[in-house]
Amino acid sequence: MSEQELLLTVEETHGPLAVATVGGEIDFHTAPILRSRALDLIEQGRSRLVLDLSGVGFCDSAGLNALINIWHAAQGAGGAMALASVPARLDRMLKLTGLDTVLAIYPTAAAAIAAVGPRPGGEQIVG
User: Which residues pair with 52 in a beta bridge?
Assistant: First the structure.
């Protein structure tokens, strides 16, 4: 696997919200790239992340670990992270590991944005 096999495109940002589309494979080689780019967004004040995973063809345990790390960082910054358009294979893995009870998962990016977008008065969504 090479760095080119993971694509992360920030589609839009509004205040603390960032919507990123992830494509390719999230594995031992590419998970650190995903983690680093997402943590950079959080450090830039984008603590409410929506990761659209519709383009992810493969995710291993290193990828799951990266998602957990990103979720923890977002929570630590007073934000939230939501996964959108999770492919069936990854959805099964999230359910088997119990991560579907921790990570917020939505059928579409629009639904995820509505759930974790900026809140008036600092209201926090846990997920």
Answer: 21, 84
